[in-house]
């Protein structure tokens, strides 16, 4: 009596029968089963962007990160390396650090004062029996590493090994942006009422960009379009884009910086995409007129008119790096139908608010665009929740959405195959 | 270890062993399994009242209707027919129309501008590949029809065929009330904290009418009682009822209008009941003194003193039609323990608020009665949620509650039998 | 594919493999399955403290008690005995009494006026068929009894038989405190965001007492410590404790009252512990200086300087009885991660607020301590919800936590064994 009982969704069947070229079937977006699978097979097995070096400038600085049921402490240790630990006391399991960020000397559980070093070692546990061995009760560690100022962690004990290759390809693009010398100018958390994959699908295409008036002041809505699928209405914009692209490419070439698109979205475990692109208007930054939002440039560039560096790492992070500032985005699943989108604006550590940059000008375009996207994602979630929903075709300009779905389904298949083998 | 784990409720077993003459076992009211079964077997397979013609006077006027996980657009098309479609874009499934009501030229999805006619056909999808066939992507249609101004839809592809017979029996009663010439004077949505079946059981008996002081100004609380089970306290009321009934019957006879009760509550797929009854006090309408609430009569009647027409269609709608105004009610399941009760007051389209009718006077009796019923339903839900609850006996005057339960269980059996066959 | 689907937790396996000496595995604290099992196997099968005689002074006085999905009426009958009934009408199951406390002549269901005596018998059900037998529709009864003014109920039809033995051991300790002559001075309900077992574990140890500054004004934080595991920092406090203990013991001996610790926490079905202990400071009561909070003593004692009587009954109640007042505590599971802690302060019925006692002084220590414990419990719940949580070792001073866990797991094993046999 299949429709009558809320029978467990057979995730393996849905994964196996996924059709390319169209959106996923409803259970991927609405079921608790797929939410749990996504946490376990995607978020707990891949490298995740969780913070920037700028958020952890000094030893003892930490942020706590929530990934599904996990809580992780990311902390700079006394060697100035970034380390990560499960935020769970080894005594009776209390959450140790309750704040989102802060600075500690040691990591002390407030319940019974078990005290750990920033290297995770248990330094002190009051009133124990003589045979108690503190060395058995270090905090459980989590893999952590940085790439040009971006902090990634991996909850798996055997993280994907190809991250080194990705880092090696991305670093020449990222390095001139000096993220390690940045400070956080603003951070906005927005809860979208939709599945995290709808957030990502929304982010991966510009087929809906007509709904983003603020964005279009600076952004060429030709993303995903080329000669073969360009709609007539975008023709003048596309010509302008080609001119701007040629100009910016010349500048990068003269600076000896790479400009070529690298796209390995669904062809490796750590799928990614990195691309330089011109911006519209003044061509400098994401503002209402395209001019730089911060006078003190962050990047080692002689001019601000250098468009953007677009970086994306599967499953859930993307970045816009301009000459004057950088923006990081991540989408964290909160439930089958709720996703946290965290947006962080970075400027040069020496830039002064009110003098070098105005916070409203800096954040306006993407704060507005995120709000608009939240409405789109909520509508998508509402729609796919109807039993009448059937997957529909991706448009030609949605090729990166397809690449996201391909990567995602491939990773689920790898996980299901691994766990099958282990049984 | 049956009590210890939240084992899936075996709905088939509970349906099979249901005892007549008493309330249903707890899982019918409290479990997610029966909620899902009710949506699928009852709400998605039967004709449901969802609106009145008065809510869709012109082509392009629409309402959106939420039935469990479904969202449906009910719209008047360019031929002035009422049509219904799933409110799900055929592209990536977004909810198309987000408002409860409005007017459209075409049905346009705000996400990527896919544009459908009010006949459901896809008129335009931007930037598609050359082989894209718009005709394959019409909105998925839902059966819709009207009966004397009442709009019904059925989500099943094979709706119950006996609705024509019901309509034919009901229309002679309903037609003089001119619902198609009405306008909506007021609409109140009330969320009751109980299962939809408790809402219906509450509605189907007057054994609890002592709890409705406002209602009793106009309503004879003798519903369900006859000579054989009349309590002494109701004797004077009953005598008054008999006199009023005889008088009203004469008037209807002189008008050539049918007066006889037709009751097929649990003897057909589209169970229904239609009955004319006198009202108390002035005998005209549901007001504090029984006088008409609207000077401009809605019905084609020479006098307002014509009591009420009571119409009920399984599973979830009931109607009171008086000479001066009409009221429609529907109960929509929101969850195992939450139900939306929508009440709509209709007056003649030409009646003027403040002159012909006063909104407070018009709505007072049923707004108050609904609030009282909401408390009864909440208490019933609380009580049946206790493991100590055991079904108890329906009183003789609760015969229509029993008929509701009979119809409901019969329909579940039919569904379970059909799905069993299909396996 | 075990991690991927929200497979039902196999409670029997977790119960069977529980390791002594360390905290429980995560599903005990976070799963719906264990929550349901705890209600059924622990709360519905054991004696539960639910009120004091002081809350039901006169015939017809009642309180309603919520235990998981159950609602129970506890009422003093016309013989001045305490009785308990399920708060579910025998007609269609409505919750009968909606208030937390009150006074009734009869117990009348407000839905259809079914009327029961305070002995549970159905006195009147309106308009029934001639063959209706009221005697078949008494309220379903619940076992109830009092111990020295403490009201206990048991939802099982076959309550644990050893409660008489427990009562016989506890009454000599409790009786001088005159709880039956008390009145309620204050009652505070606090919802803790954690599993009820984390509430109990928190309550059963003083390893965390450094987090309770108000409490330490009156309470010796040496609970759980002895010569063999005393930390150096507690040495001066412990010496003071030993002196105070000797002095108080002498007084009790001179009064002919028992002082010896009786501890049967995990060695019987109705596990309990009763102990007299000195208090710190003035040694009289739980106040900022240890002095009595109420001039009018509640206990039959010649002096207030008599410390506290600590009484605990598994699974969820504990009591502090001083010369001047008494405090009762109970922890009621509301969900896997929510627990109601009800604290009631009792003073002599003749004590006058503002003259004999000040409410803030009376409640300050434990109101503050409860709030602090709520934060500890919430952190424990957050931590054990992480998949990275592994059970950790109880410290030597947490021996009563271990005893609680032992009792709990033993009771689950008894239940699972019984239900296994019944299949």
Draw up the topology in text.
The structure is a homotrimer of 423-residue chains.
Chain A: H1 11-16, H2 26-30, H3 32-43, E1 48-52, E2 61-67, E3 70-76, E4 82-86, E5 101-103, E6 107-108, E7 115-116, E8 122-124, E9 141-147, E10 150-154, H4 163-174, E11 182-192, H5 196-203, H6 235-255, E12 262-264, E13 272-277, E14 308-313, E15 317-321, E16 326-335, E17 338-348, H7 359-384, H8 399-422
Antiparallel strand pairs in A: 1-10, 2-3, 2-5, 3-4, 4-9, 6-7, 7-8, 9-10, 11-17, 12-13, 13-14, 14-15, 15-16, 16-17
Helix pairs in contact in A: 3-8, 5-7, 5-8
Written overview of the protein:
With 423 residues, chain A is α+β, with helices and mostly antiparallel strands. The first copy, chain A, has two domains: 48-147, Rieske Iron-sulfur Protein (3-layer Sandwich); 162-400, Alpha-Beta Complex (Naphthalene 1,2-dioxygenase Alpha Subunit, Chain A, domain 1), CATH 3.90.380. Helix content of chain A is 27%, strand content 23%. Chain A is built from eight helices and 17 strands. In chain A, strands 1-10-9-4-3-2-5 form a seven-stranded antiparallel sheet. The first copy, chain A, is globular. Chain A starts with 10 loop residues before the first helix and ends with a helix. Residues 1-6 of chain A have low confidence and may be disordered. Chains in contact: A-B, A-C, B-C. The interface between A and B is large, with 37 and 42 residues.
